[in-house]
Amino acid sequence: MKIRFCLSLLALTLFNCTAQKNSLYVGTYTKGESEGIYKLDFNTKTGVLSNKILAIKTENPSFIAFSPNKKYIYAVGEGETSAITAFKVNNNKTLTYINKESSNGKGPCHVAVNNAGNKAVVSTYGGGTASVYSINTDGSLKKASQTFNHNTDNKKARAHSAQFYKDDLFVSDLGRNALYQYKLNDDNYTLKSESIIKMDGNPGPRHFAISKDGEFIYIINEYGASITSVKKTNDGFKQIDHDSTLRADYTGKNSCADIHLSPDERFLYGSNRGENSIAVFKRDTETGTIEKIQNISVNGDWPRNFTLDPTGKFVLVANQKSENISVYSINKNTGKLMFLHDIKVPSPVCLLF
């Protein structure tokens, strides 16, 4: 009995140790000391990052995304050949190259995969295009089946991010100040709306977050230092809110970057490059409107990307210029953040759990 009890206790201890570890992959720019995509262990109990390794050597993996089953990672590379690359996740959490395809535009800056895991979309800042790729069962990529070019004779497009939502594909174009909507028809996407709402001035829509039910979209504007809140209607979308991401007393330059909803969708987070902060908003889950409740320092410089951990208890911020990742705990009742610690990582620009 004593031996059986000890073995059960050992098994429980091993389970707990395993359960509180999660792999964090870090996309980087490789112009300095960085060599590619890194992997760290994240302790979901303490928020501590440790055991940094180079998962794979690759050029400028500035944005990375998982397949839904987490067996594959897709990266866009702003290298000599602008491309999307597929990698296999090995048992030891390193990565193995599978194949790559052209991004069909210069400066690919974002990649997303649909929930079925059979399509990826790449946005190119330099080219102003968004390309859709089919994914094979082995994780490899086919050549792009569609490429949408948003450039006109009068306006330069800057496609900055795209997301699938059921049969919709949304593309945020910073240059055209638009959030395009495409609809899936017979395995091809067709344009439904050149801009789901009218965006006044030059706000520069960059990234966006979609509520789980698809009823609300929150767009963070790089130039406007603001978040535009949008609600679905019977015949399209309408704007319901527009909020600054900055402190009232901040007067310096700023470029917003990333945006995420909390898992329970009661809070919204956005990053400010310049003020170097995370703006925290309380969200009305019924009306979709938001109210800013905190601006907290990122304890670094130039927060290009950030993420919430799988437990929803922590926020991790990638500070590109100061080359560190800052970790914050989330107050589950108020949504506010508290800085815990940071770790040095060369030129981090994308965080992926």
TrEMBL record:
It holds the Pfam family Lactonase. It comes from the Bacteria. Residues 1-21 form the signal peptide. The keyword rRNA processing does not apply. Gene3D superfamilies: YVTN repeat-like/Quinoprotein amine dehydrogenase. Keywords: Carbohydrate metabolism, Glucose metabolism, Signal. Belongs to the cycloisomerase 2 family. This is Lactonase family protein. It comes from Postechiella marina.
